[in-house]
Write a structure and sequence with these properties.
The structure is a single chain. By secondary structure, the chain is of the alpha/beta class. It is 36% helix and 15% strand. Strand 6 and strand 7 form a beta hairpin. The longest helix has 30 residues.
Length: 366
């Protein structure tokens, strides 16, 4: 039979319709879509005023100028900043602009940008050096107290300003965690009243011996010095009715006001290092016994050593956690047993209080 030839006015495609050709076409389309997506992501990144960077230990952060918040830069973990952007009023616009994967694409672009920049430190509550200590007050105006040998001053961050204190506060990259509270302070210029303030401290901290009072004052001063190579652990011990928990909370709030003061999860090293991400001073209440893992993690955190938690054998990656923090512990009995941890501790024994000496929290506040 003679084959039938069908004539058509449509142009003839000479490219064979093979699976390889279809894959190439799909790949070209994907590249084009990704290129367009990243163009939009970069445009969005500039619109958001996000400046990503990495810390020396490899964590990703962004400096983000949030609208209607004094036009000050906020330092946030990168993933948190992207989630916050999603939760704000921009959500619908982002979805229309970038599609369902906009969060993933924005995160990838910000991380790539951060890897090309110089690494920067991020600080919680305190920063600075031996010439000046910067103490973050925790307010939305981002003011900090600048402590120098010749006195105190207030400074608001200004990265490009003429005031050296304002530039230093801006470059400190203070991170405000969720539980961080605003610090109350006396008017600048009353620092000459410091000796009287120290004497009044013992009304709230029932320590009797001069030696133990010296240990507490030394721990408080050391907790304000960000350049120290290590911080001793202040361990408060005592029997029932010795005001251990309230004493620990007051000492913590003096340096680092925080909503999560009386932590009790000392089960392992990971829980300990998670606490260090949300406060400068880390404290645990009602400590009774410490596991070997928790003891090792506390000893490492007091000196800034790297803590390597045990991993499952299904992964070949090494996990390393590092933080240097002032630590507060309180409990009944001898809860510090390991010699390595005990050698890093300042031990304070609180006496049992009579019922007539007990004062409620509201009375102490006033």
């Amino acid at each position: 039979m003679t084959p039938t030839h069908i004539m058509s006015n449509e142009p003839i495609d000479c490219q064979e319709d093979t699976p390889e050709a279809a894959q190439d076409a799909a790949y070209d389309t994907k590249l084009g879509n990704e290129s367009e997506t990243y163009k939009r992501v970069n445009k969005l990144k500039k619109k958001l005023h996000m400046m990503p960077f990495q810390t020396p230990n490899g964590r990703y952060y962004v400096r983000w100028t949030l609208p209607n918040r004094y036009d000050c830069e906020e330092t946030l973990p990168l993933d948190t900043a992207v989630e916050d952007a999603f939760a704000m009023e921009y959500e619908n616009a982002y979805h229309r602009l970038l599609g369902d994967g906009w969060q993933r694409n924005l995160t990838k672009t910000l991380r790539a940008t951060a890897r090309m920049r110089a690494r920067e430190e991020v600080h919680l509550r305190v920063a600075g050096d031996k010439d000046a200590i910067l103490y973050d007050l925790g307010g939305w105006d981002r003011q900090a107290i600048v402590i120098r040998k010749d006195g105190l001053s207030l400074a608001q961050p200004d990265r490009d300003g003429n005031d050296p204190d304002a530039r230093a506060v801006a470059r400190a990259n203070f991170y405000r965690s969720e539980p961080m509270m605003v610090a109350e302070y006396a008017p600048i210029g009353v620092e000459r009243m410091l000796p009287d303030a120290i004497n009044r401290l013992w009304r709230y901290v029932p320590v009797r011996s001069q030696e133990e009072r010296a240990l507490i004052i030394g721990w408080l001063v050391g907790a304000l010095l960000p350049w120290l190579p290590e911080y001793p652990i202040l361990a408060i011990r005592g029997e029932w009715n010795a005001a251990k928990s309230s004493t620990m909370a007051r000492l913590h709030q003096l340096i680092d006001p925080n909503a999560w003061v009386k932590r009790t999860n000392l089960s392992d090293g990971r829980a300990i290092y998670m606490a260090s991400q949300s406060s400068w001073v880390v404290s645990w209440d009602n400590v009774r016994r410490l596991s070997q893992d928790a003891s090792d993690a506390l000893a490492a955190m007091s000196t800034g050593a790297v803590y390597n938690p045990r991993e499952l054998q299904t992964t070949f990656r090494e996990t390393a956690l590092s933080a240097l923090r002032p630590i507060l512990l309180c409990g009944i009995g001898d809860f510090l047993v390991e010699p390595d941890l005990l050698s890093r501790a300042l031990l304070v024994e609180l006496p049992t209080l009579d019922a007539s000496a007990m004062v409620d929290t509201e009375t102490l506040r006033h």
